[in-house]
Amino acid sequence: MDIKVNVREPKGDTYVVDLSGEIDVYTSPKVKDAIGELIDKGHYNLVINLENVRYIDSTGLGVLIGGLKRVREHGGTVNLVCTNPQIKKIFDITGLVKIFGIYDDVDAAMKALV
Amino acid sequence: MNQPVTPHPHGALGTVELRIPCKAEWVAVARLAVAAVANRLNFSIEDIEDVKLAVAEACTNCIQHSEGSDQIHITCETGPEGLTVRVRDFGRGPRPQKAAPSVSDEPHVGGLGVFLIRSLMDSVDYDVHPENGTNLVMTKKVAH
Fold it and tell me: B102, A58: Cβ pair inside 8 Å?
């Protein structure tokens, strides 16, 4: 069980973070570190790509919420890419669909940031 | 996406017990083991995913909130009506029992795990012993 994190070369001031694997209490610190590092460097518009994430729990959601809170303080935002129905369901029942912009692909998520 | 799982021909009545160290790296083992048990019943894939996440959240609560518990005991009781999972730790300290969903536009983290457990399972009961751990009993019924 692991999570892979890849930060793409930026387009404008937007960074895309590709995640693949499972995000749980064991792997979420790695995601938190990657997002935190971008924010620490002053990058406040992020697309987090969950297309290849098979599983996420409340600790993973907490990392995403924490990142969103931090970028909002600087006028930025976090958009998510998510197509997995089970993960979409988790965002839905927790009410996080009201907080995050959730898109079907990276292009749509990036366009929504502009 | 919601394909039914073929039930085991002899039914799936029985009890499965698992003990894991109270550490983050073992939660994946617990959720996969319980998913394998749930797979013996006539649950949909979606229901199995629900059980998997609920068990993981329960174990995560033990790891994050119990002091001095070395192990988590997970017991799965299967029956024709569904699956009952008990998640027990032996540590001290208060455990979150109340759910706090994010329903406003303001991001909120606390209580999400318990909220998910209560949302995904059909019944959830906590038996809290402040000095001797918490026993969480949750049930998922098979849809007939």
Answer: no
3-state DSSP helix/strand/coil percent for chain B, to nearest 5?
30, 30, 40
Q: What ipTM was reported for this prediction?
A: 0.91
Burial of B1 (0-12, 13-18, 19+ CB in 10 A): exposed
Residues from chain B contacting residue A61 (CB–CB below 8 Å):
109, 112
Region B61-82: mean pLDDT is: 91
Question: Considering the entire predicted model, what is its pTM?
Answer: 0.88
CA dist B67 → A38, A87, B23, B59, B90 (Å): 33, 31, 12, 13, 8
Chain B residue at shortest CA distance from A62: B109
